[in-house]
Write a structure and sequence with these properties.
515 residues, 21 helices, 0% strand, globular
């Protein structure tokens, strides 16, 4: 059986030096089907004799014991834990800085400008996902694949193709959206405020930063990939806005949403240039020196379902804020934006763990190592579920205090926060269902699920907001998120015969038997 490619799952420079001999040995000679991951099968297992686990052994003890036992003996899963710790550090920084930025803006801007800022950022993220054309995920998948299989010319071609297409699509999307807003404003259909137009202008920068981040991630440069977009960008905006706020004497209302969006655009432009320079320097020498080769027809056929998936996920997380602002006004949008961003804190664990697990899922599946794939996704489920559950519980019981940091007026969104937190809990319970299907060639099925779920979300928002206000938006968003997680879970079980949930570990790692 083929070894895991160094550039896909066994990446030596990300492993402690003392662990290198064990990992390289593992990659060269992976365990046989009759071997428990990381250790030889016990004699009882080899002979077919089994003993039932002790009756008093609880499910929780089995889960924790099995996870600890097998992580300690398996280099690939140890890499997951090690890599996930780096990813989690980045995502914690992202969640912390992003949330701190929103809290400060909630206190520095008046309610109208904070609502406008939330609407503009939501629209910008939606347009950036549309402009991405599925190319960020395509870059992650194909650049990693081509580098690991010795095809540097195709890897260089995929990188250049994705960058140029994203630049073109981002520019076209921004111009088209601006034309619609200006025309709608002239006809009295919508308010074409400058904040919204600046958010639209931010679109190409965000789209390019996202595709560049995934290209760096394909080279297993996780810090270089996510530091500019998720850490430096909010830090720069926060620092400059703080200076502006202090220069106005700390008077709330003198800092405007237009100023914040202008700062965000300038910081994004500078970081994008730096990100591109870093990518060129970190490219493998064979890829850097190769003449680009393009496989456009194949890339297009793969990209369109990935495009639907990426756009649908972004729509799911952003469209409710924009619709609340459009139908209920800027001030209500500010309340909803604060609750939505607070609930999203529970989701950063899922994003952080999946950031390192995705290439491993692809490698194990395409090598036919399904038992190890089950073990991997089971450990992923554990790493996601418990921290997310604790975060959701904290938000449910202490949500009023958390929202209070925005200002006393935002405490009124506590019930909204509880509804939206439930969606995050279901997301964690289902596990890495989306990544599992995307990384194993079932992206078209995922695209159908997400597209139908987003249509359901928009329809429910349109039906419920007029009757239930911002609570209708929260119910619509939660319902559609639960629907797609359940649907994707069923697809994973039927198509891959893998249990991605937290309880899959019971099947992946049988409890240690007593003699």
């Amino acid at each position: 059986m083929a070894a895991i490619p160094d550039t896909v799952a066994c990446h030596p420079e990300e492993i402690a030096p003392e662990a290198l001999p064990r990992v390289k040995s593992y990659c060269a000679e992976p365990p046989s089907a009759g071997t428990l991951i990381g250790r030889a099968a016990p004699p009882e297992a080899a002979s077919g004799a089994t003993q039932p686990p002790r009756a008093e052994q609880s499910i929780v003890h089995r889960l924790i014991g099995s996870m600890h036992q097998n992580l300690a003996g398996n280099p690939v899963l140890s890499m997951l834990a090690s890599g996930a710790s780096v990813a989690m550090a980045l995502y914690v920084a992202q969640a912390g800085l992003g949330y701190l930025l929103n809290v400060c803006l909630g206190r520095w801007l008046d309610e109208v400008h904070f609502g406008r800022y939330g609407m503009a950022m939501s629209l910008s993220l939606i347009l950036a996902s549309v402009a991405g054309l599925g190319l960020p995920v395509l870059s992650l998948r194909f650049i990693s694949q081509y580098v690991s299989t010795g095809k540097p010319a195709l890897a260089r071609g995929a990188a250049r193709y994705a960058w140029r297409r994203t630049l073109l699509a981002g520019t076209v999307a921004a111009l088209a959206a601006a034309a619609v807003v200006l025309a709608g404003s002239a006809l009295g259909w919508m308010q074409g405020n400058p904040t919204l137009l600046l958010g639209i202008a931010l679109t190409p920068f965000l789209a390019l930063m996202q595709v560049q981040a995934e290209q760096l991630r394909a080279l297993h440069r996780l810090v270089a990939a996510y530091l500019p977009l998720y850490v430096l960008r909010p830090a720069i905006v926060l620092a400059i806005c703080l200076l502006l706020y202090l220069s106005f004497g700390g008077d709330k209302g003198r800092l405007t949403s237009v100023m914040v969006l202008a700062v965000s655009m300038g910081g994004s432009a500078v970081l994008l240039i730096g990100q591109n320079i870093v990518f060129r320097r970190l490219m493998p020498s064979a890829m850097r020196d190769a003449e680009p080769v393009y496989d456009r027809s194949h890339w297009r056929s793969v990209a369109w379902p990935l495009w639907i998936i990426t756009a649908a996920v972004t729509f799911q997380g952003q469209i409710d804020v924009f619709l609340v602002g459009s139908l209920l006004g800027d001030e209500t949008a500010g309340l909803y934006f604060a609750a939505a961003r607070t609930a999203a804190l529970a989701g950063f664990v899922l994003l952080g763990v999946n950031a390192i697990a995705a290439p491993m899922i692809s490698a194990l599946y395409h090598q036919g190592r399904m038992a190890e794939l089950q073990r991997l996704v089971s450990c992923v489920a554990q790493l996601i579920f418990w921290p997310t559950t604790l975060t959701v519980i904290a938000l449910v019981f202490f949500g009023d205090k958390v929202l209070g940091v925005f200002g006393q007026r935002y405490v009124a969104a506590q019930n909204l926060l509880i509804i939206l937190a439930i969606a995050q809990a279901v997301n964690a319970l289902a596990g890495s269902v989306g990544y599992l299907l995307q990384m194993t060639g079932h992206q078209k099925a995922v695209a159908r699920v997400f597209l139908i779920s987003v249509i359901l979300n928009i329809l429910l928002n349109a039906l419920l907001i007029p009757y239930f206000g911002m609570y209708g938006a929260a119910i619509a968003t939660t319902t559609s998120m639960v629907a797609w997680n359940v649907w994707l879970y069923v697809l994973v079980r039927s198509r891959l015969n893998v249990d991605p949930s937290v309880f899959g570990l019971l099947h992946a790692f049988p409890a240690r038997q007593e003699a």
